[in-house]
């Protein structure tokens, strides 16, 4: 990195060709792609003090990924050393730290330095960025790899602020708060809660888990990857790649039960019900844990220890809504008050409003958060009309309900790289997707989404934007279809201006 100064003086804006936001899988993957293509004129802004993105931030007990390790890695950075079928958070973070340290990527990363705001200059053809240290930057292109699940959602529960003990969100785990011997209330029963509940249950005096909607849970069957297999993968990387394909295709076909017909998920429904019957002896508890909506409507979870943890003496599932929090505990809709020493919010993320207000101002100063007020939308989940030279990783409708999001991220990185090459080859300074192309893409997308389990499965999930009722998060098909659609840079969907036209 050698950002040059655009002006003289102490307040001079530094110039850089490409600014990347975030050093998680998206940002590091993009940085790596730039380096591989010989471009080192970029900078990565990372809010946290180290690499990993969501895997840096989320370090609650038991945090792990529910996508198999060999698919939850980048195809150009396969790792023979995964120790388990499902990778623990620490290993993923170390994998990403290793990637950041390779090929000098680290030298481009500004840790502990978020992008506070960025404003498009149409005449100058750059984004003016204000970073967390008050410095200004001019970047010709910005790639936002901020993650769709980075902004915690704090529930608006009456009286929560009055609670006397510690309250923290699963993403901001308070490791200084010792839970031993305490009465702990957990609010929420999603992917995060089911991972940490079994870890804290043996340590606490009393555990009350407040459930609003029971999740569908399948057996996890995690296991250690034996040393001989790791050795074989290291010695013959082709075998590792073949194993990855095997996992990829097994996961890929699951989408049929989500987007074609829920009848195709009958086997998994059967497995989930049998799993519950096998693991929970108490009939009342079992009844409270049966979902009343279609499987897949909310994210299907994997766990072998969540149900048994709830069935323990010191654990209690409360399936009545929280109505009031006071200084000493929580009251549910039946009027019962349960004292608590600590409240843990496992209440998820603001997935349908991923960009804060006032952060990204595009053409004419329009705020992206305002543009997305009635639901985020983009062209191919990557570019947005009115926001030239801004590219997104994991943008609207690129998350998945059935496989590894890294597959989608890689397709996007390739697409962005091709857009960059097109800009370089044609001398393009302003590249902006056409409003009409974006509308057409979204019209077709939402017609497809209408028939999926996410829209028709009878649940309320974070996939759906509350105001519009539209699914603004998921891709409604095979990942290879998305890969095909982003394989070449489709210049007809864009308007462009070159240096001579902008005068920059
Ligand atoms: O959050 P969630 P999460 N009062 O939104 C409840 C990824 N992830 O952090 O279902 C009471 O799933 C809410 O209830 P309901 C993964 O994509 C991945 O667990 O809305 N309850 C729900 O039970 C995942 O989907 C891994 O009725 C309230 C819970 O809080 C995503 O992160 C691991 C409430 C929120 O569940 C989010 O998971 C962990 C309120 N006011 C996470 N508000 C992997 O393994 C919310 N709830 C890859």
How would you describe the overall organization of this protein?
With 504 residues, the chain is α/β, with parallel strands linked by helices. The protein has 2 domains: 301 residues, FAD/NAD(P)-binding domain (3-Layer(bba) Sandwich); 141 residues, 3-Layer(bba) Sandwich (FAD/NAD(P)-binding domain). Helix content is 30%, strand content 18%. The chain has 16 helices and 21 strands. The strands form 5 sheets. Strands 1, 2, 3, 4, 5, 6, 7, 18 and 19 form a 9-stranded mixed β-sheet that branches. The protein has a 5-stranded parallel β-sheet with strand order 8-17-9-10-13, covered by helices on one side. A 3-stranded antiparallel β-sheet has the order 14-15-16, with no helix packed on it. Strand 9, helix 4 and strand 10 form a beta-alpha-beta unit. Helix 1 packs across helix 12 and helix 5 packs across helix 6. The longest helix is centred in the C-terminal third of the chain and has 22 residues. The relative contact order is 0.14. The structure holds 3-acetylpyridine adenine dinucleotide (N01). 3-acetylpyridine adenine dinucleotide binds next to helix 4.
Terminal Cα span: 23 Å
Overall 3D form: globular
Ligands present: 3-acetylpyridine adenine dinucleotide
Estimated share of beta-strand residues: 15-25%
């Amino acid at each position: 990195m050698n950002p040059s100064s655009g002006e003289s003086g102490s307040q001079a804006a530094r110039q850089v060709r490409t600014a990347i936001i975030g050093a998680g899988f998206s940002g590091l993957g993009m940085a790596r792609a730039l380096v591989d293509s010989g471009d080192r004129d970029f900078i990565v802004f990372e809010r946290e003090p180290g690499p990993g993105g969501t895997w840096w931030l989320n370090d609650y007990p038991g945090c792990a990924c529910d996508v198999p390790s060999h698919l939850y890695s980048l195809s150009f950075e396969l790792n023979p050393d995964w120790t388990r079928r499902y990778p623990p958070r620490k290993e993923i973070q170390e994998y990403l730290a290793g990637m950041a340290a390779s090929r000098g990527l680290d030298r481009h990363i500004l840790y502990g330095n978020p992008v506070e705001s960025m404003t498009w200059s149409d005449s100058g053809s750059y984004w003016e960025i204000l970073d967390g240290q008050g410095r200004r930057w001019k970047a010709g292109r910005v790639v936002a790899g901020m993650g769709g699940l980075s902004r915690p959602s704090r529930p608006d529960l009456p009286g929560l602020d009055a609670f006397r003990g510690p309250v923290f969100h699963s993403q901001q785990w308070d490791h200084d708060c010792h839970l031993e011997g305490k009465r702990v209330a957990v609010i929420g029963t999603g992917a995060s809660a089911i991972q940490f509940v079994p870890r804290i249950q043996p340590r606490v005096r009393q555990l009350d888990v407040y459930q609003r909607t029971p999740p569908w849970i399948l057996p996890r069957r995690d296991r250690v990857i034996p040393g001989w297999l790791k050795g074989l993968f290291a010695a013959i990387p082709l075998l590792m790649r073949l194993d990855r394909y095997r996992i990829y295709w097994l996961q890929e076909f699951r989408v049929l039960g989500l987007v074609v017909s829920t009848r195709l998920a009958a086997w998994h429904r059967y497995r989930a019900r049998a799993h519950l019957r096998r693991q929970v002896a108490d009939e009342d508890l079992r009844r409270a844990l049966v979902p009343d909506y279609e499987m897949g409507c909310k994210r299907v979870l994997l766990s072998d220890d969540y149900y048994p943890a709830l069935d323990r003496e010191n654990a209690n599932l409360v399936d009545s809504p929280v109505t009031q929090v006071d200084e000493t505990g929580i009251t549910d809709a039946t009027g019962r008050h349960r004292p608590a020493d600590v409240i843990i919010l496992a209440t998820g993320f603001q997935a349908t409003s991923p960009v804060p207000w006032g952060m990204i101002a595009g053409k004419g100063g329009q705020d992206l958060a305002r543009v997305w007020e009635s639901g985020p939308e983009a062209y191919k989940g990557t570019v947005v009309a009115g926001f030239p030279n801004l590219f997104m990783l994991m943008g609207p409708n690129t998350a998945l309900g059935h496989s590894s999001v890294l597959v989608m991220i890689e397709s996007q990185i390739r697409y962005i790289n091709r857009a960059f090459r097109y800009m370089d080859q044609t001398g393009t300074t302003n590249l902006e997707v056409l409003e009409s192309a974006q509308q057409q893409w979204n019209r077709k997308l939402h017609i497809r989404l209408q028939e999926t389990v996410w829209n028709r499965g009878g649940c309320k999930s974070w996939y759906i934007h509350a105001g519009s009722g539209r699914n603004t998060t998921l891709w409604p098909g095979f990942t290879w279809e998305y890969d095909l659609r982003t394989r070449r840079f489709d210049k007809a969907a864009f308007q462009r201006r070159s240096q001579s036209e902008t005068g920059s």
